[in-house]
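Name: (+)-lariciresinol reductase
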Amino acid sequence: MAMKSKVLIIGGTGYLGKRLVKASLGQGHQTYVLHRPEIGVDIEKVQMLLSFKQQGAHLVSGSFSDQQSLVNAVKLVDVVICAISGVHIRSHQILLQLKLVDAIKEAGNVKRFLPSEFGTDPARMENAMEPGRVTFDDKMVVRRAIEEAGIPFTYVSANCFAGYFLGGLCQPGFILPSKDHVSLLGDGNQKAIYVDEDDIATYTIKTIDDPRTLNKTVYIRPPKNILSQREVVQIWEKLIGKELHKSSIPAHEFLASMKDQNYAEQVGLTHYYHVCYEGCLANFEIGEGAEEASKLYPEVKYTSVEDYMKRYL
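Structure predicted for (+)-lariciresinol reductase:
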């Protein structure tokens, strides 16, 4: 049995990062978590780091403002996974990864780098709208730097985080499902793909020692979870035993309403537009040079949309 790679997770106290730490430890990898002094006295993050340590992770100090500390951290491991936020309503730090690319290049020992992706495949979003396209443009800047440096990579496109999309029945600004009313985006028939955040982490860690995913994009498309907003609503109605009152927001109204929002909100709403009005996640076949996670790892019992939504009952 080949030795499992040692893994460094950056952004390990974040929404997805903490799940990646758990999955890495759970799959038997020696797991290192970057402790950034910038977290200061954020007691919740500090306590989370200490709990990782109790579970067997190694904490390693490092900062994006101290290049040598990044090089030293990277030298400890085989695989680097970055999960720093690219969501404007939280914080958008995607381009900080260019410092990480430089550190990986200088260290020279990393067998695989997984940058902070985990959403829509940015390579398919060259025609995305302003201002939301900044997310995709920045991710492509990082990809180009990785590829120009000759760093082996895997890009994980995890589509919709279930907590954000299913919790609000695919309505922006909601993360708990109503038992009365839902606003359909357009006709509500565009397909999207919803993935439990714990499953995203499980699949991601599975890819890191897999030669089939080297220098490729891995899409996470669990077959039961490729559904339209209408189908998500129907599942919820079945669970609560009641039909919701439905109204519809036409595309032109949705776009017009964005203009009153602040920049961060506009970025997020643009992403909703591409997903829910254009169906950008599910309207293409996965071609050559890419893989699909649920096919590669049929042993993973992923959470279906219906099972995920039972938590809201």
